[in-house]
Amino acid sequence: RTETLRKYVRMAPVIPVVTIEDARTSIDLAHTLVRAGLAVVEVTLRTPAALDAIAAIAKAVPEAIVAAGTVLTESQIAEVADAGAKFIVTPGTPPKLAERLSAAPIPVMPGCATVTEAMALAEAGFEILKFFPASASGGAAWLRSVQGPLPALSFCPTGGIDQASAPAYLSLANVPCVGGTWVAPAELLRKGDFDRIGELAAAAAALRRPT
Ligand code: 3PG
């Protein structure tokens, strides 16, 4: 499962984090992102429409990799897997949730914000972690600092990142991709402005790690 997740986080430099109010918009959104070069999208469980949106994308846009984000409780693990989510993302990972996530039927990118939390997740078998909230928790400097002590771990930083700050993160060897809401913000989704979302997504897809 780690290898599957590794493949997903290497598919594009940015994972758009989206909050969907109307599940009907999710298919246009997924097509727009995939066309622009962002195949992976994290749908947060922050709205009643989220599960339907995940199911709609999984069914109608098979070339998209839809993740379920903001997974906070044990019961949501089966719900999102049943809806067709390809992997699970959590903002933080208390020990009991980590234990349940270890047995999840799909890959998991658990959230952490400290070295101790990252070590606990590594002990539980997770190697690819979400670093959240990234900019508030130390940003790219934190990630650079943990490369030495935690060489086996990689991180998808999310929280406070935008087009301008993404390159500093993507230049780090332990950062395969970053996440953020700037690509498909709620206002643009509400307006159905997929042209603008497509432009933002294309710019995000063009961000690359220097090789
Ligand atoms: C998340 O859940 O990952 C955050 O809400 C990302 O938000 P931001 O990109 O707007 O900081």
Automatic annotation (TrEMBL):
<keyword id="KW-0456">Lyase</keyword>
<dbReference type="Pfam" id="PF01081">
    <property type="entry name" value="Aldolase"/>
</dbReference>
<comment type="subunit">
    <text>Homotrimer.</text>
</comment>
<dbReference type="GO" id="GO:0008675">
    <property type="term" value="F:2-dehydro-3-deoxy-phosphogluconate aldolase activity"/>
</dbReference>
<keyword id="KW-0704">Schiff base</keyword>
<keyword id="KW-0119">Carbohydrate metabolism</keyword>
<comment type="pathway">
    <text>Carbohydrate acid metabolism; 2-dehydro-3-deoxy-D-gluconate degradation; D-glyceraldehyde 3-phosphate and pyruvate from 2-dehydro-3-deoxy-D-gluconate: step 2/2.</text>
</comment>
<dbReference type="InterPro" id="IPR031337">
    <property type="entry name" value="KDPG/KHG_AS_1"/>
</dbReference>
<dbReference type="InterPro" id="IPR013785">
    <property type="entry name" value="Aldolase_TIM"/>
</dbReference>
<protein>
    <recommendedName>
        <fullName>2-dehydro-3-deoxy-phosphogluconate aldolase</fullName>
        <ecNumber>4.1.2.14</ecNumber>
    </recommendedName>
</protein>
<comment type="similarity">
    <text>Belongs to the KHG/KDPG aldolase family.</text>
</comment>
<dbReference type="InterPro" id="IPR031338">
    <property type="entry name" value="KDPG/KHG_AS_2"/>
</dbReference>
<dbReference type="InterPro" id="IPR000887">
    <property type="entry name" value="Aldlse_KDPG_KHG"/>
</dbReference>
